[in-house]
């Protein structure tokens, strides 16, 4: 990959690193209902190799407008390769960005932020000298000594967060997981990779047998940081009535125990994270997988409904819990909340995609939270969705059969892989009201699909089914299969800013930890037996009544599963 883009931006009020050039161009102070006027704050963030990200904050200082057109001219060879939050076009050096339906309204003093990824040749990337909005030139100068962006019109940022916490940072290696990985033959090849630390029950806060507690992890993280920026990845996973559409990871809190969730789980975690000793860490929290999307996809009248998801929708405790977690954790200035957005095999259909983004926005504004508490989203947590399907597209036409409509594997899904899904979800979330700067994470711990069965080219162009099934890298029996998948491999190694809009590839599900037991195993963790983890199961409405594709002899969810660890290493892609 030669063109690497980063799509998160510092919120207003954040000190911009010295490597970032800032051009501030302002008209005089705003006056309500005055003649047309505008201010544009333009920031170019160079990331080497001739690539850069452009952030453009537009502030309307004149009468309210319901749509706008921004124009500027690049002084050099710069080219916009991809833009967001506006319709971008470029002719020669002249760039035009017009408003979208959702950000055209700008009252007096109102502002909006748009952005793009661009490229330039040569050694300098000089900022445009002038901008116009609806034909009016935005003029004026920022104080020449300033390296901060202005805060006009935006709520104060509670912290000093950077745009992409993974950029220029180490990522915490969980020594508890490393020890298990290292004890496996060949495991040392991946044992030093950073993985997620799961707070999967109240007891995990203080530590359980074989797993240190939260403060001990954070102490170790400070040691690993040794003065450099370091990200530690925590999974917040203990909602009341957890995982309502499956049984394998049901948790300890009953559907109505929202108060225990707040006082015995979130409050103590937030208190520990807020300790001054941890202020220099970048604490990434993956907030509540297996929750909100269930309220869209697995409730009455869908054929996929479960009674438990109906209960969680009716009692509102998923929304309340997520809102509370975001508010409490987001109040800690060095916490970066990433909200779970499932994966393309769950929310990639049109009737799930938009409604999920809207529901997430509702939760982000519940229980005293605001959207400012959401730094981004994470896709594919603990799932197996391939990062990129290179050998087919949804609109391929095979002998008159369009893949999206006729290939059973796709079955009208709008997306075929996690990268496409994550990038599109980011945009849809912004449309739902989230900040334009939100970034995505993708869990690549187990979506490699390498090994001997990996196709090396497209399938036969006979039928849409043959074409897709012959060429797809994701070798699952059905896209809805999620438990201990046979044939899966370790995916992309953790990496910062790998693609446009993506803050990082991460390993949140620690490879080798089971998704669920393949038969009933009594336990005191609240874990049930889900037949999707039983290799003999013939399926249900959520996986098209297909075989589960699960490995045999699996232990309880979260417990060490040596055979799976070995299989994941064997099928790693890129190979180990
Ligand atoms: C389990 C958790 C575990 C996590 C990571 C989940 O499926 O329910 O107990 O910590 O996976 O392995």
UniProtKB/TrEMBL annotation:
<dbReference type="InterPro" id="IPR001524">
    <property type="entry name" value="Glyco_hydro_6_CS"/>
</dbReference>
<keyword id="KW-0326">Glycosidase</keyword>
<dbReference type="InterPro" id="IPR006311">
    <property type="entry name" value="TAT_signal"/>
</dbReference>
<dbReference type="InterPro" id="IPR016288">
    <property type="entry name" value="Beta_cellobiohydrolase"/>
</dbReference>
<dbReference type="InterPro" id="IPR036434">
    <property type="entry name" value="Beta_cellobiohydrolase_sf"/>
</dbReference>
<keyword id="KW-0732">Signal</keyword>
<dbReference type="InterPro" id="IPR012291">
    <property type="entry name" value="CBM2_carb-bd_dom_sf"/>
</dbReference>
<feature type="binding site">
    <location>
        <position position="198"/>
    </location>
    <ligand>
        <name>substrate</name>
    </ligand>
</feature>
<keyword id="KW-0119">Carbohydrate metabolism</keyword>
<feature type="binding site">
    <location>
        <position position="513"/>
    </location>
    <ligand>
        <name>substrate</name>
    </ligand>
</feature>
<keyword id="KW-0136">Cellulose degradation</keyword>
<feature type="signal peptide">
    <location>
        <begin position="1"/>
        <end position="34"/>
    </location>
</feature>
<feature type="binding site">
    <location>
        <position position="383"/>
    </location>
    <ligand>
        <name>substrate</name>
    </ligand>
</feature>
<dbReference type="GO" id="GO:0004553">
    <property type="term" value="F:hydrolase activity, hydrolyzing O-glycosyl compounds"/>
</dbReference>
<feature type="region of interest" description="Disordered">
    <location>
        <begin position="137"/>
        <end position="163"/>
    </location>
</feature>
<feature type="domain" description="CBM2">
    <location>
        <begin position="31"/>
        <end position="141"/>
    </location>
</feature>
<feature type="binding site">
    <location>
        <position position="200"/>
    </location>
    <ligand>
        <name>substrate</name>
    </ligand>
</feature>
<dbReference type="GO" id="GO:0030245">
    <property type="term" value="P:cellulose catabolic process"/>
</dbReference>
<feature type="binding site">
    <location>
        <position position="509"/>
    </location>
    <ligand>
        <name>substrate</name>
    </ligand>
</feature>
<feature type="binding site">
    <location>
        <position position="343"/>
    </location>
    <ligand>
        <name>substrate</name>
    </ligand>
</feature>
<keyword id="KW-0624">Polysaccharide degradation</keyword>
<feature type="binding site">
    <location>
        <position position="482"/>
    </location>
    <ligand>
        <name>substrate</name>
    </ligand>
</feature>
<feature type="compositionally biased region" description="Low complexity">
    <location>
        <begin position="139"/>
        <end position="154"/>
    </location>
</feature>
<dbReference type="InterPro" id="IPR008965">
    <property type="entry name" value="CBM2/CBM3_carb-bd_dom_sf"/>
</dbReference>
<feature type="active site">
    <location>
        <position position="243"/>
    </location>
</feature>
<keyword id="KW-1015">Disulfide bond</keyword>
<dbReference type="GO" id="GO:0030247">
    <property type="term" value="F:polysaccharide binding"/>
</dbReference>
<feature type="active site" description="Proton acceptor">
    <location>
        <position position="515"/>
    </location>
</feature>
<dbReference type="Pfam" id="PF01341">
    <property type="entry name" value="Glyco_hydro_6"/>
</dbReference>
<feature type="binding site">
    <location>
        <position position="346"/>
    </location>
    <ligand>
        <name>substrate</name>
    </ligand>
</feature>
<comment type="similarity">
    <text>Belongs to the glycosyl hydrolase family 6.</text>
</comment>
<dbReference type="Pfam" id="PF00553">
    <property type="entry name" value="CBM_2"/>
</dbReference>
<feature type="active site" description="Proton donor">
    <location>
        <position position="290"/>
    </location>
</feature>
<keyword id="KW-0378">Hydrolase</keyword>
<dbReference type="InterPro" id="IPR018366">
    <property type="entry name" value="CBM2_CS"/>
</dbReference>
<dbReference type="InterPro" id="IPR001919">
    <property type="entry name" value="CBD2"/>
</dbReference>
<protein>
    <recommendedName>
        <fullName>Glucanase</fullName>
        <ecNumber>3.2.1.-</ecNumber>
    </recommendedName>
</protein>
């Amino acid at each position: 990959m030669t063109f690497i883009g980063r799509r998160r931006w510092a919120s207003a009020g954040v000190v911009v690193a010295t490597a970032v050039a800032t051009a501030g161009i302002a008209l005089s102070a705003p006056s309500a209902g005055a003649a047309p006027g505008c201010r544009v704050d333009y920031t170019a963030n160079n990331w080497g190799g001739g690539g850069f990200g452009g952030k453009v904050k537009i502030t309307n200082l004149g009468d309210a407008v319901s749509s706008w057109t921004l124009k500027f001219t690049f002084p050099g060879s710069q080219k916009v390769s991809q833009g967001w939050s506006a319709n971008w076009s470029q002719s020669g050096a002249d760039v035009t960005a017009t408003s979208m339906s959702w950000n055209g309204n700008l009252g007096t003093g109102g502002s909006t932020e748009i952005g793009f990824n661009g490229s330039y040749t040569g050694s300098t990337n000089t900022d445009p000298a002038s901008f116009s909005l609806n034909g009016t030139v935005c003029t004026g100068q920022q104080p020449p000594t300033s390296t901060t962006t202005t805060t006009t019109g935006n709520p104060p940022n509670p912290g000093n967060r950077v745009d992409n916490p993974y950029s220029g940072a180490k990522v915490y290696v969980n020594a508890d997981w490393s020890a298990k990985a290292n004890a496996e033959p060949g495991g040392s090849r991946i044992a030093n990779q950073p993985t997620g630390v799961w707070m999967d029950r109240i007891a995990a806060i203080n530590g359980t047998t074989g797993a240190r507690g939260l403060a001990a992890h954070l102490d170790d993280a400070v040691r690993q940081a040794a003065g450099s920026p370091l990200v530690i990845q925590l999974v917040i996973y203990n909602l009341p009535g957890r995982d309502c559409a499956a049984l394998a990871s049901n948790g300890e809190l009953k559907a109505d125990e929202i108060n225990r969730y707040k006082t015995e789980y979130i409050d103590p975690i937030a208190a520990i994270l807020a300790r001054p000793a941890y202020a220099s860490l970048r604490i990434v929290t993956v907030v509540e997988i297996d929750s909100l999307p269930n309220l869209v996809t697995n409730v009455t009248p869908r054929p996929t409904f479960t009674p438990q998801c109906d209960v969680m929708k009716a009692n509102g405790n998923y929304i309340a819990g997520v809102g509370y977690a975001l508010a409490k954790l987001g109040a800690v200035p060095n916490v970066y909340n990433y909200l779970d957005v499932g994966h393309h095999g769950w929310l990639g259909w049109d009737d799930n995609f938009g409604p999920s983004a809207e529901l997430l926005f509702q939760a982000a504004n519940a229980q005293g939270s605001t959207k400012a508490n959401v730094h981004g989203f994470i896709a594919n947590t603990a799932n197996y969705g391939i990062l990129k399907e290179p050998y087919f597209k949804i609109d391929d036409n095979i002998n008159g059969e369009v893949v999206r409509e006729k290939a059973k594997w796709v079955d009208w899904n709008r997306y075929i892989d996690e990268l496409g899904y994550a990038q599109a979800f980011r945009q849809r979330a912004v449309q739902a009201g989230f900040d334009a700067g939100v970034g995505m994470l993708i869990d690549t711990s187990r979506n490699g699909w390498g090994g001997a069965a990996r196709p090396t080219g497209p399938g036969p162009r006979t039928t849409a089914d043959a074409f897709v099934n012959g060429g797809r890298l994701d070798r699952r029996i059905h896209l809805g299969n999620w438990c201990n998948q046979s044939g899966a491999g370790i995916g992309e190694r953790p990496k910062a800013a790998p693609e446009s809009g993506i803050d990082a590839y991460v390993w949140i599900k620690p490879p080798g930890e089971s998704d669920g037991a393949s038969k009933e195993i009594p336990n005191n963790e609240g874990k049930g037996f889900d037949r999707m983890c039983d290799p003999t199961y013939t399926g249900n409405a959520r996986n098209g009544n297909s075989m589960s594709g699960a490995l045999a002899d699996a232990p309880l969810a979260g417990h060490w599963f040596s055979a799976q660890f070995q299989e994941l290493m064997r099928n790693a892609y890129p190979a180990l």
